[in-house]
Amino acid sequence: MISMQKVSKVYPNGVVAMDDLDLEIRDGEFLYVVGPSGAGKSTFMKMIYREEKPTAGQLLIDGLDVGKIKDRHVPKLRRQLGVIFQDFKLLPSLTVYENVAFALEVVGAETSSIRKQVMDVLNLVGLKNKARNYPDELSGGEQQRVSIARAIVNKPKLIIADEPTGNLDPETAWGIMEVFEEIHRRGATIVMATHNRDIVDKIRHRVIAIENGKVVRDEEKGAYGYDI
Protein backbone atom coordinates (compact mmCIF):
# COMPACT_ATOMS: atom_id res chain seq x y z
CA MET A 1 0.00 0.00 0.00
CA ILE A 2 2.81 2.44 0.95
CA SER A 3 6.43 2.21 -0.13
CA MET A 4 9.13 4.65 0.96
CA GLN A 5 12.56 4.34 -0.61
CA LYS A 6 15.37 6.62 0.60
CA VAL A 7 12.83 9.31 1.51
CA SER A 8 14.19 12.50 3.06
CA LYS A 9 12.59 15.80 3.97
CA VAL A 10 14.67 18.91 4.67
CA TYR A 11 12.81 22.13 5.43
CA PRO A 12 14.01 25.49 4.03
CA ASN A 13 15.47 26.41 7.43
CA GLY A 14 17.76 23.37 7.25
CA VAL A 15 15.85 21.17 9.69
CA VAL A 16 16.09 17.51 8.64
CA ALA A 17 12.66 16.02 9.44
CA MET A 18 13.05 12.72 7.54
CA ASP A 19 16.43 11.15 6.88
CA ASP A 20 16.84 8.48 4.18
CA LEU A 21 13.75 6.50 5.20
CA ASP A 22 13.03 3.01 3.83
CA LEU A 23 9.66 1.50 4.78
CA GLU A 24 6.96 -0.78 3.40
CA ILE A 25 3.39 -0.77 4.74
CA ARG A 26 1.31 -3.69 3.54
CA ASP A 27 -2.25 -3.56 2.24
CA GLY A 28 -4.66 -4.14 5.12
CA GLU A 29 -2.09 -3.44 7.84
CA PHE A 30 -2.64 -1.40 11.02
CA LEU A 31 0.47 0.62 11.85
CA TYR A 32 1.16 2.79 14.89
CA VAL A 33 3.71 5.59 14.47
CA VAL A 34 5.29 6.56 17.81
CA GLY A 35 8.20 8.65 19.02
CA PRO A 36 9.03 11.75 21.05
CA SER A 37 7.73 15.20 20.13
CA GLY A 38 9.71 16.72 17.28
CA ALA A 39 10.93 13.34 16.05
CA GLY A 40 9.39 13.67 12.59
CA LYS A 41 6.04 11.87 13.01
CA SER A 42 3.94 14.76 11.73
CA THR A 43 6.15 15.19 8.67
CA PHE A 44 5.90 11.45 8.04
CA MET A 45 2.10 11.65 8.08
CA LYS A 46 1.92 14.87 6.05
CA MET A 47 4.04 13.39 3.27
CA ILE A 48 1.58 10.51 2.88
CA TYR A 49 -1.36 12.82 2.20
CA ARG A 50 0.90 15.30 0.34
CA GLU A 51 0.73 18.20 2.74
CA GLU A 52 4.52 18.04 2.40
CA LYS A 53 6.66 16.76 -0.48
CA PRO A 54 9.77 14.61 0.00
CA THR A 55 13.01 16.44 -0.69
CA ALA A 56 14.55 13.22 -1.99
CA GLY A 57 13.60 9.59 -2.54
CA GLN A 58 10.42 7.92 -3.73
CA LEU A 59 7.09 7.68 -1.89
CA LEU A 60 4.52 5.40 -3.52
CA ILE A 61 0.91 4.99 -2.43
CA ASP A 62 -0.80 2.09 -4.16
CA GLY A 63 1.74 2.50 -6.97
CA LEU A 64 1.33 6.28 -7.34
CA ASP A 65 4.50 8.39 -6.92
CA VAL A 66 3.13 11.00 -4.50
CA GLY A 67 6.19 13.22 -4.69
CA LYS A 68 5.85 13.68 -8.44
CA ILE A 69 2.15 14.40 -8.83
CA LYS A 70 1.28 17.98 -9.76
CA ASP A 71 -0.27 20.22 -7.11
CA ARG A 72 -3.55 20.39 -9.03
CA HIS A 73 -3.88 16.61 -8.70
CA VAL A 74 -3.41 16.57 -4.90
CA PRO A 75 -7.16 16.96 -4.14
CA LYS A 76 -7.84 13.86 -6.26
CA LEU A 77 -5.23 11.91 -4.26
CA ARG A 78 -6.76 13.00 -0.96
CA ARG A 79 -10.22 11.89 -2.04
CA GLN A 80 -8.83 8.36 -2.20
CA LEU A 81 -7.57 8.62 1.39
CA GLY A 82 -9.32 9.05 4.71
CA VAL A 83 -7.53 11.65 6.84
CA ILE A 84 -8.46 12.16 10.50
CA PHE A 85 -6.98 14.90 12.68
CA GLN A 86 -6.72 15.55 16.40
CA ASP A 87 -8.81 18.73 16.15
CA PHE A 88 -11.67 17.22 14.09
CA LYS A 89 -11.82 20.01 11.42
CA LEU A 90 -15.61 19.86 11.16
CA LEU A 91 -17.60 22.62 9.43
CA PRO A 92 -19.49 24.30 12.30
CA SER A 93 -22.34 25.62 10.15
CA LEU A 94 -23.23 22.16 8.85
CA THR A 95 -25.09 19.39 10.67
CA VAL A 96 -23.50 16.01 11.36
CA TYR A 97 -25.27 14.62 8.30
CA GLU A 98 -24.16 17.53 6.11
CA ASN A 99 -20.52 17.33 7.27
CA VAL A 100 -20.35 13.68 6.22
CA ALA A 101 -22.40 14.15 3.03
CA PHE A 102 -20.08 16.97 1.96
CA ALA A 103 -17.27 14.43 1.46
CA LEU A 104 -19.46 12.63 -1.07
CA GLU A 105 -20.75 15.75 -2.76
CA VAL A 106 -17.26 17.03 -3.60
CA VAL A 107 -16.46 13.80 -5.47
CA GLY A 108 -19.71 13.98 -7.44
CA ALA A 109 -21.52 11.06 -5.83
CA GLU A 110 -25.05 10.36 -7.01
CA THR A 111 -27.55 12.26 -4.89
CA SER A 112 -29.73 9.16 -4.68
CA SER A 113 -26.95 7.16 -2.99
CA ILE A 114 -25.63 9.82 -0.61
CA ARG A 115 -28.29 9.46 2.08
CA LYS A 116 -27.85 5.70 2.38
CA GLN A 117 -24.05 5.94 2.49
CA VAL A 118 -24.10 8.71 5.09
CA MET A 119 -26.61 6.98 7.37
CA ASP A 120 -24.77 3.66 7.05
CA VAL A 121 -21.50 5.22 8.16
CA LEU A 122 -23.13 7.22 10.96
CA ASN A 123 -24.62 3.96 12.20
CA LEU A 124 -21.13 2.41 12.13
CA VAL A 125 -19.71 5.16 14.36
CA GLY A 126 -22.75 5.17 16.65
CA LEU A 127 -24.18 8.56 15.69
CA LYS A 128 -27.22 7.74 13.60
CA ASN A 129 -29.45 9.54 16.11
CA LYS A 130 -27.30 12.70 15.97
CA ALA A 131 -27.55 13.30 12.23
CA ARG A 132 -29.40 16.62 12.64
CA ASN A 133 -27.16 17.99 15.39
CA TYR A 134 -24.46 20.61 14.84
CA PRO A 135 -20.84 20.07 15.94
CA ASP A 136 -21.11 22.44 18.91
CA GLU A 137 -23.96 20.31 20.26
CA LEU A 138 -21.69 17.24 20.47
CA SER A 139 -19.06 16.06 22.92
CA GLY A 140 -15.42 15.86 21.84
CA GLY A 141 -15.71 12.12 21.33
CA GLU A 142 -18.82 12.51 19.23
CA GLN A 143 -17.15 15.15 17.09
CA GLN A 144 -14.24 12.79 16.48
CA ARG A 145 -16.69 10.07 15.45
CA VAL A 146 -18.15 12.49 12.89
CA SER A 147 -14.63 13.18 11.66
CA ILE A 148 -14.06 9.44 11.26
CA ALA A 149 -17.39 9.01 9.47
CA ARG A 150 -16.50 11.78 7.03
CA ALA A 151 -13.09 10.18 6.39
CA ILE A 152 -14.45 6.71 5.66
CA VAL A 153 -17.72 7.45 3.84
CA ASN A 154 -15.94 7.16 0.48
CA LYS A 155 -14.68 3.71 1.53
CA PRO A 156 -10.98 4.59 1.15
CA LYS A 157 -8.47 1.76 1.30
CA LEU A 158 -6.04 3.90 3.34
CA ILE A 159 -6.83 5.80 6.56
CA ILE A 160 -4.33 8.33 7.93
CA ALA A 161 -5.04 9.25 11.57
CA ASP A 162 -2.84 11.90 13.22
CA GLU A 163 -3.28 11.77 17.01
CA PRO A 164 -7.02 10.96 16.72
CA THR A 165 -7.43 10.42 20.48
CA GLY A 166 -5.10 13.22 21.61
CA ASN A 167 -7.82 15.58 22.86
CA LEU A 168 -10.07 12.91 24.36
CA ASP A 169 -10.45 11.46 27.84
CA PRO A 170 -9.34 7.82 28.27
CA GLU A 171 -12.82 6.27 28.20
CA THR A 172 -13.78 8.18 25.05
CA ALA A 173 -10.46 7.29 23.43
CA TRP A 174 -11.18 3.57 23.90
CA GLY A 175 -14.54 4.02 22.22
CA ILE A 176 -12.86 5.70 19.25
CA MET A 177 -10.37 2.84 19.01
CA GLU A 178 -13.24 0.35 18.81
CA VAL A 179 -14.40 2.23 15.71
CA PHE A 180 -10.92 2.06 14.18
CA GLU A 181 -10.72 -1.65 14.91
CA GLU A 182 -14.01 -2.24 13.10
CA ILE A 183 -12.82 -0.19 10.10
CA HIS A 184 -9.64 -2.28 10.05
CA ARG A 185 -11.62 -5.53 10.22
CA ARG A 186 -13.48 -4.36 7.11
CA GLY A 187 -10.20 -4.25 5.19
CA ALA A 188 -8.80 -0.71 5.45
CA THR A 189 -5.11 0.01 5.88
CA ILE A 190 -4.64 2.30 8.90
CA VAL A 191 -1.60 4.44 9.73
CA MET A 192 -2.01 6.12 13.13
CA ALA A 193 0.38 8.50 14.86
CA THR A 194 -0.20 8.44 18.60
CA HIS A 195 1.23 9.29 22.02
CA ASN A 196 -1.28 7.00 23.77
CA ARG A 197 0.84 4.30 25.38
CA ASP A 198 -2.14 2.41 26.89
CA ILE A 199 -3.82 1.98 23.51
CA VAL A 200 -0.64 0.86 21.73
CA ASP A 201 0.25 -1.59 24.49
CA LYS A 202 -3.23 -3.11 24.81
CA ILE A 203 -4.40 -3.15 21.18
CA ARG A 204 -1.33 -4.66 19.58
CA HIS A 205 -0.43 -3.90 15.98
CA ARG A 206 2.78 -3.17 14.12
CA VAL A 207 4.71 -0.28 15.67
CA ILE A 208 7.38 1.93 14.13
CA ALA A 209 9.28 4.40 16.31
CA ILE A 210 10.69 7.54 14.70
CA GLU A 211 13.53 9.51 16.28
CA ASN A 212 15.47 12.33 14.61
CA GLY A 213 13.81 11.53 11.30
CA LYS A 214 14.79 7.86 11.28
CA VAL A 215 12.91 4.64 12.02
CA VAL A 216 14.74 3.26 15.07
CA ARG A 217 12.32 0.41 15.80
CA ASP A 218 9.92 -1.66 13.70
CA GLU A 219 8.04 -4.41 15.53
CA GLU A 220 5.10 -6.65 14.71
CA LYS A 221 2.59 -6.41 17.60
CA GLY A 222 5.01 -4.00 19.24
CA ALA A 223 4.79 -1.90 22.40
CA TYR A 224 4.80 1.86 22.82
CA GLY A 225 8.26 1.81 24.37
CA TYR A 226 8.46 5.34 25.79
CA ASP A 227 7.77 6.84 29.21
CA ILE A 228 5.16 9.59 29.07
Overview of this protein structure:
This protein is α/β, with parallel strands linked by helices and 228 residues long. Helix content is 32%, strand content 25%. The strands form 2 sheets. Strands 6-7-8-3-9-10 form a 6-stranded mixed beta sheet, sandwiched between helices. The chain has a 4-stranded antiparallel beta sheet with strand order 2-1-4-5, covered by helices on one side. The longest helix has 16 residues. It is globular. This is Cell division ATP-binding protein FtsE. Part of the ABC transporter FtsEX involved in cellular division. Homodimer. Forms a membrane-associated complex with FtsX.
Write a brief caption for the model.
With 228 residues, the chain is an alpha/beta fold.
Compute the separation of the termini in Å.
31 Å
Characterize the overall form.
globular
The proportion of residues forming helix, as a percent range, comes to 25-40%
Number of domains: 2
List keywords for this structure.
globular; single chain; 2 domains; six-stranded mixed beta sheet; alpha/beta; 32% helix; 228 residues; Rossmann fold; four-stranded antiparallel beta sheet
